Amino acid sequence: MKDYIRSLSDFMQVVRRTGSAEYGLRSVKKHAGSAKLIITSNDLSQKEISDLEETVKSTRAVLIKLRDIAPAELGRAVGRQHPVRALAIISLGDADLEKFLESVKDLEESGALSVARSARRR
């Protein structure tokens, strides 16, 4: 799991420097329509996850649900000083989304996280 945290942290450094992100579930819901990537911690209820999955179906966003990452750990990984339950990448800037998704493919296959892509993205 440590490689994944490092990969996420590196990806988010580029996003913070050259792109834009929104943090917190309320803000993620508000900006989900324009998001490129949504990442959630293991702290969301099934209803909250279902709502985000429904939103993602009608957008071009990718939803990554982290099963083993608590909000405090996600917050640290994305460079925040507080817990983060969910975040949305609005603008990638110079970050390479496909490369990042490729780096987590093994974790998706192992079940540590799940990746949902909208039908529009495929």
Automatic annotation (TrEMBL):
Domain Ribosomal protein eL8/eL30/eS12/Gadd45 residues, every copy: 12-96
Keywords: Ribonucleoprotein, Ribosomal protein
Gene Ontology annotations for the cellular component aspect, listed alphabetically: ribosome
InterPro entries documented for this protein: Ribosomal_eL30-like_sf, Ribosomal_eL8/eL30/eS12/Gad45
UniProt keyword annotation of Transmembrane present: no
One of the Pfam families matching this protein, by short name: Ribosomal_L7Ae
Signal peptide: none
Listed name of the protein: Ribosomal protein eL8/eL30/eS12/Gadd45 domain-containing protein
Species in which this protein is naturally found: Conexivisphaera calida
